[in-house]
Structure of Leucine-rich repeat-containing protein 71-like isoform X1:
Amino acid sequence: MKKRVEKSSKEKVDKVDSVTDEEPPKTADDYQCSGNLELDFTELCKLMGLKQIPSVKIKQSTFTNRGVMARTEEDSQFQTSLESQMTTWSSKPCLQIELENEDHGSVKEVKISGWKVDEVVLQVLSRICPSLSNLQCLHMWRAGLTDSTFTSIRNTVSLCSNLRKVVLEGNRLPEQSYHLLIGEDSMLTDLSLRNNHIEEEGAHLIGLALSTVHSANKNLLSLNLAFNSIGDAGAIHIAQGLRLNRSLLCLSLSYNQIGDNGAAHLAEVLGHFALTHEEIVERRKLLIKGEESTMVQPSLVSLADSHDRPLSVRSSSSLDRLNKATKNSTKKKDNPKKDEKPAPGQAAKKEESKVAKKDNKVPRSQAGKSAGKDNNLLVSEQERVEVVETVIPLLDPGIVHTGGKVIHPGNKCLTSMNLSGNKLTEQSLKVFLSSLEGQGEGGLLRLSLNRNPFHSDCDTFLKIQEIMSLRDPLKKNRSGQVEDEHGEPKTTSDA
């Protein structure tokens, strides 16, 4: 009898230990995200005391061991259902996610459409999103964001290592602090801020985020500001931000009540423009700094730093010079009797100095300098350093002095601009025509001017169309295509 009691007591202790080992977290702070959004979202909502937990719907293509299969009819219907929810209010709160593959831990997109997101849900998302290593896009349409909840979103975005696209549409913020998403340290490449009632102040802040004399965003490639209330004053601020920004490729300002004054400033930035006093002062500082040292510490340079077309910034000429300097320095070591003559490494350094002066003292990688000074540096070590050249906008080789002014060749990185549905007349079109003609190689490939109050058969517009038809690679392969009310192409008769 005594043995039975001891056995029973031991079993109870074992059960208690087993329960203790598998005891779930008591608070949200104790919860460790697994990377499975469905599981983590539900569990964290429960721990946060949320009574009505939004459902999670998965949009996923069908896969086989050999790859992707064609989407089934059921998948197609589900996709249509999801797309319809993006433009209408959801009857019930729902978190829509898209997976990279069959793995539920491969969430690449999170969408919230048509329901107000409270602070509790945002706290949950702020815990989950950074754990999603494949997350690339966050889409929030009419989510009822406030200045407070937007701050939470902004902090979450900064913690997501691979998040590159953010869509915040139909979310009006009194403080208009959208610019916080495109600060100098932002890694976003695509940002859509349509229909957010952005006015002059918001546009001013966005313009400053794009660039100032002392800083510039280097990663944002596409910015959609359509269907806001930016107006002429706001467009001038955006134009100011484009002066020294060399990353942005696509900009939409359609349906923003922009007139000839704002449009003219946008056009002037694309062509030759005179530097301001502040820009000239900063240019002089950069030139002096370049004379003191044409070398900078090794760093990775973004695509935006190219003044022609942001396709490649690797300099083969720099690599050639670096290799020659290395070989020559090695020969010097092998032949000490030739020390009386100028060292080949020093000659290479002088040659680089001449080239640097010719290029307006363009900063270079430290690797080029060390190649001429340190004869013991191995070639294998140098090959690990990526030597690149960067042209700072204020040191652009195309800058000239004329008539007492310093003239900049203009922003040739922007390839697409949408100004459909505004208040442009032939007056501002003439400024665009002048800038386009002066761009030469590079510059805009697409300019949307539909639904503006000018005659479509006016000479200026026809000339602009002729120029753009020769530039736009898409128009070369299509005929009879115009744009819809949003400035997007559709196949109908010629404009």
